[in-house]
Amino acid sequence: MKEMTVIRKLLLLVAAAFFFLIGNSMLYQENAAFFMDQVQEDGQSVNQTYSLTDVLAANDGLTLSENTIDTAEAETGENWESSFDLDAWNLLLVNKQHPIPEDYEVKLGVIKGSMKCDERIIPELTEMMQDAKKDGITLVVCSPYRDMSRQDMLFNRKIKNYMRKNVSFLEAYKKTAQAVTIPGASEHQIGLALDIISNTYTALEEGFADTAAGKWLAAHCQDYGFILRYPKGKEEITGIEFEPWHFRYVGKDAATIIMKKNLTLEEFVQRVRQQ
Prior knowledge:
Elements lengths: L1 H20 L12 H9 L24 H10 L31 E5 L2 E4 L3 H13 L4 E4 L5 H16 L5 H11 L13 E6 L13 H9 L5 E5 L4 H4 L4 E7 L2 H9 L4 H10 L1
Helix pairs in contact: 5-6
């Protein structure tokens, strides 16, 4: 068992190093998980039959501006970094350079049907979707928790899809790692990340950012402890392309700072570590 653990760690480190050297998510249907994968890979519409019909979304979103940074300073004070404990479950940084710890235990709870996420974030998720519904928009949760085997399948299939277009393995790997997180380094695997779209825009595309639902989420997600995990213009920091549908739970205090200061989770963690 120890040997397998060591081997897995080495494989994750090799994968992260490999990506760095070469250049640096789907609705869960009750009995048809493959449909989720097709949405992620091909940008197809999501079958609304399996949306969360009892939790919906908003109307007229607000976009964040540089002016909100000053407000955040006033609200949080200059030494906000010292008030956070990076060992807290909700602040776990997971990316290519920081794979999921071997001893991490996911505390899963049921959202609806076969959809699951960390049970501790369900109250805030439900509240967010109910408040969005009051504003007139139906939010649809897609691609919540994934286990290792599903993440591995998604990653490898994406590589094969690129290679079918006469792309080399190295280039296919690079492109895939910018769109699908390396297995063992995905926030979906710890149950704290959710892909969220709407009943009127059902594809995982950048265009979601310009919809009423996308704007509402970007403006209000922090009120419920969520952040836009992969913002536009921060691709070199996160290693992932802009995903206006991907939200990560970090808790209300951290989310307020991250969103209002236009930080990524990587930048937030770095600042807390340096304080």
